[in-house]
Each structure stands twice: as structure tokens, then as C-alpha cells.
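User: Show me a protein chain along with its predicted structure.
Assistant: Here is one chain, sequence first, then C-alpha cells.
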Amino acid sequence: MSYPPLADVRKTLRVEWYRSPIPGKTLRELSRRSDLQGWFQAGGHLALFCLTGALVFHFWSLQLWGAFMLSLFCHGTVTSFFSGIAAHELGHGTVFRTKWLNKIFLHIFSLIGWFDTYDYNMSHTYHHRYTLHPEGDREVLLPIEPTLASFFMLQLFTINITSRPRRVFDKGGLISTVMVTLKRAFGVVGPARVPIFEWYRALHADQPEEFRKSIRWSRILLLFHGGVLVIAIVSGLWLLPLIFSTATFTANWIRYFVALPQHCGLRDKVNDFRKSVRSMRINPLFSFLYWRMEWHLEHHMYAGVPCYNLRKLYEEIADDLPEPRTLVGAWKEMRMIWRRQKEDPDYQFDTPLPPTARAFREEAPEEIELESSIGDLAPAGLR
């Protein structure tokens, strides 16, 4: 399917988003950023990475192989959230009040996670402005299969080696990520027949300066991870790449289970986030690793609110929102939807609203700036 140039989309597509009413004073309070909260979230996640990495090294040096494998599994579980999760919220610039701290942590997490923050900031700006309207947002292109295939599950609980990017913003598994990054370092993008590569091409045509930054960043990624490999070979510390370069592909199980429900199976081409985005309740550890993005509906509705305030935001507007799913409930729902979609490709799940919710409308009132804020996400060419 062909789509219009994004420059044209910005001129012609206007999505008047419905947002649950909230007093301006309350929204301003919830939108306030905190360096202390930022250090707890970003610093705490990085500290967990260092702790689990140190345990991997410790048990390797003692040749306690059972403990080594367990610590490597935990290290991968922690690190798998660097790419696209930690970097997502830091990209919004809403974690720390001090702006340069957002930038520093963004690049640390992106470097270890093989993550292209320049491509992502372009893509995610469109994702928030035109959520699930395919002409303006193909960061997530429905339908998406909530697969539980055996070989895929095996890789989620070991090392994701062979997965390939398809219909969501992702570089795929280890092999695909290295190849995508290597090609990008020379300005090459994959074939347009793959939906996510078509999306990259549209973004690069729209924002060529950001594409040049993406190329430079891809070279930095290769230099860093290549340097880790060289040091490992010279020093004989073969586990260094396992700690720094392949950890983001190891034990991706939690990330997959909590992140896929964001939009999977829901409605596209609507102006009501309650119909196109799914929130969940998950345990505190998963919530911390996921940077509170289980409150994903609330994040889309008011993207300028820091992740650590999203639950408070939910409590303020809960009467107007669907009941958050449980993790198991979300997966049952997605699997049911997918079975229906195999029989009826046009089927999309229509999330029921509570009796206290305001009615869904095809037209919504004009937004004020604070309500529609996406933080500091947008690159210069999209502001």
C-alpha cells in the first residue's frame, strides 16, 4: 500500500483528540518533572544493570556455571528494557527536570541497547500526533499477531537471535540488529516491502537532517560494540560482549509480554485513545522495568506527564476510562482478537467504556498546549 509524503500529511491530516477532562492546576502539578524521581527511575535501572552485570562477572570468575546462567538471565531481563522503553521516556524529556540529564541517560541506554534514538524521535513524534492513523503513523501498523510460537518463545527465554523487524518499530533480534545498524551506518535502509522499513524511508525523506544524525549514531553504535568485542578478544574476557553487547537480546520475555498489549488488536483511525490504547495493572518490579508504561492510555492522552506520575493521572480521570486490564486478561483479549481477525481481517476490538465515561465522539474540542504536549520529543524539523 502506498502512502502520501509525510510533509503532505502534516498539512492535511488533523486529528482532534478526545482527552478526558482534568483541571488545569492538577495537570500542571502532574506534569512537573523531578530530578529525584528521575534518578530513582533512570539511575535505579542503570544501577540494576551494573549489579546484575557484576554478578555475571563474579560467577563467571568463580566458574559457578549454574549461578552464572541465572545471573545472565536476570541481566538480560533488566537490559532488554533499555531499547525502546528507557530510551522512550527519556526521549520525551520528561524524566528529569534538568534537561541535560535526560540527554545523557538517553544516550547511555541507547548505546548499550543498540537503539537509534534519532529515528525513534521522528517516528514517535508522528506516533503521538497521529496514533494508529496509518497515513501519519506507521510506528505500529495493525494488525499485529500476539504470537506464542514455540521457537519464538524459546528465543524470548534465551537469546533473541533470528527475529526480524516487521510491523512495529524494532530492529529485530541480534543478527538483524547488527545488519540493520551496519547498513544504516552507510545510509542504507531495508526494502520498502517490509512495513517498518517503508516507514523509515518515509521518515528519512521527510527529515533528512535527522537521517544524517541516525547514520552518525549507527556508526557510534558499531564503534562501541566493536570496541567491546576487541577488548574481549585482547583480554580474554569473552563474557564482556554478553554483559554489554548481547544483553539487550537476552531474556526478552517480560518486555515482550508487557509491551505488546499497548495497541495490539485495538481500533485504528479513531480520535479516542480509549479505543486505540490499552492500559494494564502489573506488579511493581515489572512496572519499574517498564518505566510505568503499563499506564499507556494515560501516557497517550497526556504525554507531557512524567512516567512516575501516570498512575496518579489515571486516578484523576479513572471514571472516564476503561478498567485497566490485567496482564493475563490483556493477552487473552489479544489472542481472542487475533483468532477473530484470521476469519475476518477487518475485525477490531471495540473497548467498552464504563457508564461514567463521557461518550465517544468523532469530533473533539480544540486542545490547549499543555494537554497536547509530548515533552521535548519532537526533533527541530517537526516542532
